[in-house]
Give the backbone structure.
Amino acid sequence: MESAIITGTGIYEIPGFTFTEKIIDTAYGSARVNVGVKDGFELAFLARHGLEHTTPPHQINYRANIKALQILGVSRVLATNAVGSISREIPPMSLSLLTDFLDFTSGRAFSFFDGGDTGLAHTNMDEAYCPILRTRLLELAPEHELEIIPHSVYVATNGPRFETPAEIRMYDQLGGDVVGMTGVPEVVLARELGMHYASVAYSINWAAGLEEEMTFVGDEMAELKQLLSLLLVNTIKSIEVLDCRCNEAVMIMHQPQINP
Ligand code: HPA
């Protein structure tokens, strides 16, 4: 199957699909991927934290997840990320399209190219999120009754703790718009495997220090998340050819000797 959707906190189903869980073994560990078909359209669905939300951001096996999708034949991925809002232009309850990121994660396995037999490569990140998928998401949003803010810089933190107010002030000064714990290295790994990847962030709170007390959006967002899931399916379904350069992003300096 060609298409996959990866969801974050609070999205554990895709409307209209019934899935069967598959455990896919990879050289990096196993991944649980749900596979389903609707009206002849095959879709892989991965809930990053698990369907019971048991895996914290820093423990997600991002390499196994992305490799498992590749094993299934996936080459295009649409994702969602729950975030906190740093920019006043992107308040809680709004959706924003990720256009770039700042990586503040640490200690995560963030590459398939680890030297030696696994090869050495540098991956171009000048356009980390697929421009064709992004354009299509923005085009189809209005007919799903959704408004998507077209640009946002994602700050990836390690979690599982939230940030301090001083950290948020720093991220703001550096140009970060929204903050989350799971967007990186997922996008990087997808790109290393030549996949097309885009993500829509949904904000559930003002980031630390922006309000007297941190509060989180709850059930009020249920309908929005349903519409968003539907938008992801219809977007990924609607594109036949992805005429972009995502699959040329990897510059191999030393060819891998194994293909895990
Ligand atoms: N910080 C980090 N990750 C998050 C936040 C936040 O404020 N909200 C949702 N995910």
In short: The pocket of hypoxanthine is lined by residues 82-84, 157, 162-163, 179-181, 204-205, 207 (CB under 6 Å).
